[in-house]
Amino acid sequence: MVPELSGTAAAVSAGPLEVVHGLIRDAHRDVTRVVVVGTDPAGRRLTGRSSTLGRWGADVRVGRAGDPAATDAEVPDTCVIAWWLLDRAGSEVPRTFIGVAGGPGEAGTPGWASMLGEGDLVVVAADGPASLNLRAPVPEDPRGVALDSGLAAWLRDGGALPDPGADTAEEIGWWSRPAWRLLDDLVGGAAAREAISWAPFGVGYHAARWDRHELTPGTRA
């Protein structure tokens, strides 16, 4: 996905990423802050800081111009990739990252929704299972293939989030399950306004947009 890290392999995702950037830009009307929510076992939070792709070997800065640099220990991987996506989409409003360690009914991040304001755009950063074919990071698993298809359908059609449980999620490489569960809690089973799914190199990639004001007053996702 990131050319600075994957070279020509990034071309596979170039077209879909243009759609993703468009979703982010369309959601930026009247936004005063972006709140990125992503899975992080440490439950870290970060506001007004920048980072780099250095942990993966590329000296590329990510984050808003003028935001001071944070150490690698302060910034989860999910946050770095989200910052990169926001940079590519031209987002210039202040940013906050909230790490979640579990979904509703689990450890989670208690009271995270109370941190949100009227002008906040909520970006939930998560991916599908990493076991979709022989090139995947995790051995190909039909359970992962079925789940990824189910996640794509859930984004398009709404309803109950497909969730095989924590143990199976770990086995099939669905490590961002807590963020998906939080997203489900946020949108209440509503179908997305727009959605796109693709699966480069055996990992499920998905992007979707909801109008938060149509769900619950106060924020947007």
Throw out a few tags for this protein.
6 helices, Protocatechuate 4,5-dioxygenase, Chain B
Plain-language structure description:
It is a single chain. This protein is an alpha/beta fold. It has one domain (3-214): Protocatechuate 4,5-dioxygenase, Chain B (3-Layer(aba) Sandwich), CATH 3.40.830. The protein contains 6 helices and 8 strands. The protein has helices at residues 3-6, 11-26, 77-89, 142-157, 166-171, 177-187, and strands at 33-39, 45-47, 51-52, 61-62, 95-100, 120-125, 194-198, 205-209. The protein has a 4-stranded mixed β-sheet with strand order 2-5-1-6. Strands 3-4 form a two-stranded antiparallel sheet. A two-stranded antiparallel ribbon has the order 7-8. Helix 2 crosses helix 3.
Write the layout of secondary structure elements.
Layout: H1 3-6, H2 11-26, E1 33-39, E2 45-47, E3 51-52, E4 61-62, H3 77-89, E5 95-100, E6 120-125, H4 142-157, H5 166-171, H6 177-187, E7 194-198, E8 205-209
Parallel strand pairs: 1-5, 1-6
Antiparallel strand pairs: 2-5, 3-4, 7-8
